[in-house]
Structures are given as structure tokens and as C-alpha cells.
Amino acid sequence: MVITARPSYSRIKTALEAIEQHKDLELLLVVATSALLDKYGKVVDVIRKDGFTISETVHNLVDGENLLVSAKTTGLGIIEFSGVFDRLKPDAVVTIADRYETVATAIAAAYMNIPLVHIQGGEVTGNIDEKVRHAITKLSDIHFVATEKARERVIHMGEDPKKVFVTGCPSMDIVMRVLDDADVKERYDPLCKYSGVGNVLASRNDFILILQHPVTTEIGEARDQIRCTYNAVKDLPIQVYWFWPNVDAGSDAVAKTLRTIRESEEPQNIFLFKNLASDDFIRLLNSARCIVGNSSAAIREASFLGVPAINIGSRQAGRERGENVVDVPYDSERICQAIQEALGKNGDRKRNCLYGDGRGGAIIADLLAKVELTSNKMLQY
């Protein structure tokens, strides 16, 4: 199993737990790229704290956040992952979702004739992730997808229906844990363990969350897009918990803009965070009045929880979504209006199980134990 970034770990944590507990499986965990760096929350520390043993680490992130660096990081990843796989000699490699580091994992495994298992293929979104996700699908031998529509797309791409399984998204397992912990709000505040970046967290009252990442096909607009969202929330009479972007082309521009806003304008209602542990983030999301930005968390986890989500721009274009999601363009007035409408909704939240029912990790582990592992496939065209 290869973990390369913050979202990768949250997507797969419960599957790692189920694999470790399974009598017929052995977990070899490789942690790489931005998951090792403090700048992006040093997810490796969270992984160790959660009790997992790390077999190898791979430092393959080239410094800088632009298109050239993304390509170089991918190339270096192919070289480094090939060496790791040669040393560990795994029976299969499991790779997650659609990041550029993920395609490096897939290429290395495919060329070494190691059976490749892809989690969360078959989905549709905007930007470069769309190309990467489908490329990994064609490199992969076994597919664990989140929805029935995703399974249909993978099969239509020529993959063997017998090797395409609907497992749901394992991150829904973590959401289910939070929902099962009925009195969590009364006895546990996840932010008691964290502090904002560059400021002190105010007393916790009502709040909204923002997760906004750069769009790799729109990196020239990243600064304006982040400013647009800031202008929509800066005067809101509510606290805003804003999370640092993923490591993608354009992230540097987003980060610099956030730093400039923090230092020059000193907004009193906005608090910046690098990373929260998966369970803590879900607890926070469950308590939020709404989530704003372009993260898949608004489409997946927030939908399961029924938390209102304002999705901005094209990054999640085409992804299946629940009734909780409202789509808006990069227009400060439209964003602010959508937030105000979400804040006005105080009724019961409707949960949507589109991306799974909270058993994804166990399903994945059971399938890995019994599915035929082969790197030689016949296309089904």
C-alpha cells in the first residue's frame, strides 16, 4: 500500500486497519511525497500515531508547486517506487485515486509485472485528475470502485467485469464511526489539540469549513480564485476554519495568497490549519454549518453526513453528488449568497450513502484475500 498525500491516507485508513487484522494478509506500507513533509501536515506522524508500521519512506517531491515540478516528481517517483517494490517484493501494489504521485506508483508496478489494485477509479471530475485516474485504470488489474456508475465506466473502458468491485469509499467508514459516537459533540472538541497557523483559535461557536485547492488546468487563476472565496467570507459573522491546499501545481500561489491575507489584512474570523487527523476532521465537519470550496470531501463525506456544501468552480465537475451540494462559479456574491442560504437551513440533515455505507475497509480487505492476483489481463473490448 502506497500513501503519498493527506487525502490518500484519509481515503484508505480503515482498509489499512482491516488488512492488518486479516489473517490471510500482510500489510507493507510505503509513505512518500507530501505525506512526509511538515509543510503539508506531516501525515507520516499521524500514520505512526495511529499504530501502523511503515516499511519504507520515499522522498520524491521536487520543491516547487507548478506543472514542471509535478511532472518531475512523477518521474522521480517511478524511479524510487521501482526500487522499493524490488526490495519489498509485494504480491500486489494498492494505489489510491488520481494524484500525479499515484500514477508514478501505477507505472512502476505495471512495468514490474506486479498486480496493481486501484481504489476509486471510474469517477468523473475536472482538471488533470480526470486523465490520471483513467490512465491508472488502464494500468491496473483489479478495481475497487466507490459507486455503481463508476463500475460501469471502468467496464466500458475495457476492464474485465469480474475484476471490478463496488466497495464504497473507505472514508465513509470513519464518518460512520463519528455518527455512531452519538455524544461526541458534548464530550470532545477536536480543535482542543490544534492551533491555527499564525493566530490563536477563538472560542468555538458556529463555524464553516473551507477546503479550496488549485485547479491544475487553471493555475494562472489560482490567486484570483482564492481571493474570490476570501471576499465572500471575510465579513461573515461566523468563524471560518480554512485548510491549507493539497500539494498540486498552483498550491504555492494559493498558500502565498493566504499568507498575504493573514499578515496584511489580519481577518478576525478566519483561522488557518495545515492538517487534522482523519477522525478529528470528520468530527469537525459534522459540527460545521457548511463546507465551502472544491474538495471532494464536500461531495463524499459531507454528503454522507448531510452537511450543506458549496462547491466552487470546475474541479469536481461531473462527480456524482448528493442533495447537499450547491454548485456556484467563482463569484464572491454568488458564493456568499449560497453560504447565507446554507446557514439558514437549521432542519434535519439528509444523509446520502452514494459513496458507501461505512463498510468499505473490511470489504476491500476481504476482496484482497480472495481475488486472483494477476498482472496479465485481456481487454474486454
Can you walk me through this structure?
With 381 residues, this protein is α/β, with parallel strands linked by helices. The chain folds into two domains: 183 residues, Glycogen Phosphorylase B (Rossmann fold, 3-Layer(aba) Sandwich); 161 residues, Glycogen Phosphorylase B (Rossmann fold). A six-stranded parallel β-sheet has the order 10-9-8-11-12-13, with helices on one face. Strands 4-5-6-7 form a four-stranded parallel β-sheet, sandwiched between helices. The chain has a three-stranded parallel β-sheet with strand order 1-2-3. Helix 1 crosses helix 7 and helix 4 packs parallel to helix 5. About 2% of the residues have low confidence.
Helix share, percent: 40-55%
Strand adjacency order, main sheet: 10-9-8-11-12-13
Mean pLDDT: 88
Total helix count? 14
- Count of the domains: 2
CATH superfamily of the largest domain: Glycogen Phosphorylase B
The H/E string reads: EHEHEHEHEHEHEHHEHEHEHEHEEHH
Shape: globular
State the end-to-end CA separation: 30 Å
Offer a concise description of the structure.
The protein folds into two domains: 2-169 and 356-370, Rossmann fold (3-Layer(aba) Sandwich); 183-343, Glycogen Phosphorylase B (Rossmann fold). It is built from 14 helices and 13 strands. The protein has helices at 6-21, 43-49, 67-88, 100-111, 127-139, 148-156, 171-180, 184-187, 222-233, 251-265, 278-287, 301-305, 332-343, 360-370, and strands at residues 2-3, 30-32, 56-58, 93-96, 116-119, 142-145, 164-166, 207-211, 239-243, 270-273, 291-293, 309-312, 325-328.
